[in-house]
Amino acid sequence: MAIPDEQRLIEEIGQRIDWYSTALMRVNSNVVNPLTDVFMGCGTFVRIDDRYGILTAHHVVKELIPPFRLGLILRLEQAQSFMIDSDHLTICELAVSDEEEVGHDLAFIEIYGPDVSTVKANKQFVNLSVERKTVLPSPLGLNQGAWFIWGAAAYRNTIEPPERGLKPIIGLHGLCGPGLAVKETQDSEHDYVDIQVNYGEGDETPRNFRGYSGGGLWQIRIEGIDTDSPTPTEWIYSGVIIHQSDVVDQKRVLTCHGRRSVYEYAYLRIQKRCAYRLTSV
Q: Are 215 and 21 in contact (CB under 8 A)?
């Protein structure tokens, strides 16, 4: 059966966003229940000048206390085992807020040398140094293009049968889907975008978004949106998912750090060697 044009467009956009996205797992020798103890959240591969790493939410990385190994997802629908020892990465705490407050929630996991090469062989890095030159001066309006979120809902994680010598295998079921940008706000240093997702429109909408934290917010420019052949022409990395609201009237709101938080606040602090929590190699 042919895929409807709208579904085909969503799949095309999702596949492209997946190039830059990953789930994050903490792997150590004392894990009792991998579904609750290993999966931490998500992140986006980014580059700042000659530095490479993962931009995510601070509350995702705050439990990464050495020693541990950080597991990353690099390939779709394949069993894999790519882990980085904690002494081969550093964590930069970019923005930290009170646990009762929504906001100020960013971190950068810097990776090095051979690990960067391995990621490059399977994924791509958003070049913040290049993209900020166009994103900051002339950002698209909230109602221009389409908004997408990328993440992996924790409740959908599974334990899979052993494969290729890997045991156990944790099945992470990522999903990239559209949302409606309903509000944009800012404070003295950060901006935020609220993305609304609606229930009752299909089975693909996650019943909750725990696990999406740190995942990417993207704005997609689409040409010919009112024609029979809409075409995505620009993928703009636009933020980091940090919080989900309760469901009200079959709607849930995901609060995300926005473009200013990413391309100005985070960028400048990473560039200036922000306060690291772990010692780099």
A: yes
**SS3 of residue 149 by DSSP:** strand
Element (DSSP H or E) covering residue 12: helix 5-18
Please choose, from the candidates 95, 93, 149, the residue with its C-alpha nearest in 3D space to the C-alpha of residue 275: 93
∠ CA 60-64-68 to the nearest 5 degrees? 135
Q: Mean pLDDT of successive 10-residue segments in the chain (281 residues)?
A: 66 93 79 58 95 96 86 71 87 81 87 95 96 93 93 73 59 80 93 93 78 96 82 94 94 96 95 60 38
Nearest-angstrom CA–CA distance, 156 and 32: 18
- Count of CB atoms situated within 10 Å of the CB of 257: 28
Judge if pTM exceeds 0.85: yes
SS percent in the chain: helix, strand, coil, step 5: 20, 40, 40
Is the Cβ–Cβ distance between 207 and 229 less than 8 Å?
no
Q: DSSP letters of 160-225?
A: EPPBTTB-SEEE--EEEEEEEEEEEEE-SS-EEEEEEEESSS-TTS-S--TT-TT-EEEEEEEETT
